[in-house]
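Running co-folding for coenzyme A.
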Amino acid sequence: MIKYTNSLDNITTNHLNGFFVDWPNPPSVTTHHKLLEKSSYIWLAVDDHTGNVVGFITAISDEVLSAYIPLLEVLPEYKGRGIGKNLVEHMLSTLSGFYMVDLLCDQELQAFYEQFEMIKTQGMNFRNYQKQSGI
Ligand SMILES: CC(C)(COP(=O)(O)OP(=O)(O)OC[C@H]1O[C@@H](n2cnc3c(N)ncnc32)[C@H](O)[C@@H]1OP(=O)(O)O)[C@@H](O)C(=O)NCCC(=O)NCCS
C-alpha cells in the first residue's frame, strides 16, 4: 500500500533511490534528502512494504502570498497508479491559502496539471547546468 506523508521522520537516504531519472547530472541521495529538509513543504509517497519513497513533491514559499512547486516525480515502476495525482492534490491542499501557486512544466505535461484546474501560462527560466546536482 502507498502511504502519503508530509514528514521526513524515519526517511533516510537509504529510502530515496531511483529518482531524477534522465537527469545527466542528478543530485545524490544526500542532496535529495537535504532539499526535502529545506523545502517549505513536502509530500512523500511511501511504499509501506519497503519503507521506500516512491514519489515526492516539493514547494518553496514566502509564507505570505506565493508558493512555487519545483519538483514532482514518481519512480518509473510506480507510475500510472494515481500517485502523482495524489501528491499534487495533497500539495495543492497544503498551499490552498496562498494567492499564487506556480510551477513550470514541459508542454506535454500541461494536460496532467490541467486536471487540477491549473491554467497554462507563460514563463521564463534560467538553468545553471553546472549546478544540476546541487550546491
Ligand atoms: C508526471 C508524473 C509525476 C505523473 O505521475 P503518475 O503517478 O504516473 O501519474 P498518475 O498515475 O497520478 O496520473 C493521474 C492522471 O494523470 C494522467 N497523466 C499522467 N501523466 C500524464 C501526462 N504526462 N499528460 C497528461 N496526463 C497525464 C493519467 O492518465 C491519470 O489520468 P486518470 O486519472 O484519468 O487515469 C510522472 O509521470 C513522473 O514522475 N514523470 C517524470 C518527472 C516529471 O515529469 N515530473 C513533473 C515535472 S513538472
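Result summary
Residues 2-131 form a domain with the Aminopeptidase fold (CATH 3.40.630.30).
The beta strands are 2-5, 41-47, 53-61, 66-68, 72-74, 100-102.
Job closed.
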